Every structure is written in C-alpha cells, then in structure tokens.
Amino acid sequence: MEPIFAILVGALFTVAIYLFLSKHIIRVLMGAAILGNAVNLLIFTAGRVTREVPPIIGGDTDTLSNAAANPLPQALILTAIVISFSFFAFLLVLGYRAFQELHTDNSDEMRVAEPMVEQSPPAGY
Could you give the C-alpha distances from 124 to 76, 117, 118, 120, in angstroms and in order? Predict the structure, then answer.
C-alpha cells in the first residue's frame, strides 16, 4: 500500500507544481490546495500506513510495540490540515479582492505598478 501512496504523492506534487506555473490566479490557488494535500499524504505515508496494531499502550508496558502505527504523524496531519485550509482561505480572499480591483485573474495583466504604455522621459528640466 505504501508504494501506491508514494506514487500518488509524486503525482500530486507534480500537478501542484504544474498549476503553480500557470498565469491564472485560480490555478495557482488550486495548486496550493493540492500541494497541502500532497504534504499531508506524505506525512501520513511516513507514519507507517500498513501496521495493524493500534497505537495504544497497555497497562503492563511503558512503550508502544514495534508493530504499532506511529501516532505523531497523525497528530501533525491534523495540525497541517488546519493550517493549509486557513492559508487557502486567505489566498482565496486575496485572489478575489485582486479580481474585484483589477477585473482579471491573469497575473501578466495584474501589473499595477508597471504601466502598460511606456511614457517617454521628460524632455528637460
């Protein structure tokens, strides 16, 4: 099962990088969401997916058995889900406000600081 997850993680990273290279802001936002999911799946895969013993410490032992799944990556994933969702929501609002102000989602057309028409320099001072 872990090799399948590894291939899936690679595919998600590939799609996310491809979407980040786009000129349209909505595709960049989708790339950020997919990248967050890819990182979560990568952390989940690193925590030994195929173990069948729950991570419960019995009353007669002090540590987990070697066959138990590691609970730390699962806790990290819960934190990462909240952080990636809040980051995506922030980027979504930022992209929407940029679209409202500039009436485009193309990043090449969003150059407010760089005028489209070159003005000639002043003739003299």
Answer: 63, 21, 18, 12
- Residue range 86-116, pLDDT digits in tens: 999 999 999 999 999 888 888 888 876 666 6
Q: Would residue 57 be called left, alpha or beta, if left means φ above 0 and alpha means ψ between -120 and 50 degrees?
A: beta
Question: Which tens digit of pLDDT belongs to each residue from 8-23?
Answer: 999 999 999 999 999 9
The Cα 89–Cα 55 span in angstroms is: 33
Residues 109, 98: contact at Cβ < 8 Å? no
Distance, CA of 24 to CA of 88 (rounded, Å): 16
Q: Which of 65, 79, 71 is nearest to 48 (CA)?
A: 71
